[in-house]
Amino acid sequence: MDRIETLDDGTPITDAVADVLVADVYAALDRGAYRAIPNPHSQRSAKPRKLDPQARAALQAALDAAE
Predict the structure, then answer these.
(1) Phi, then psi, of 4 in degrees rounded to 5
(2) Region annotation Disordered: residue ranges (predicted)?
(3) How many domains does the chain have?
(4) Could you tell me the pTM of the whole model?
(5) Residue 15 sits in which domain range?
């Protein structure tokens, strides 16, 4: 099945039309028309990190001293 891609108004999407569309999107981004959406998958699952016993003891001592 051959399919010709067109815009809603029936304009065929050529390389020139695609270049204009891409330029419009980048111009809108430069103007701040869009905001970045944070990717929820960008951080791997945050798992607690294990500290070695000496580091844990030093951290606990520093926290106790701060109180």
Answers:
(1) -100, 120
(2) 37-67
(3) 1
(4) 0.42
(5) 1-37
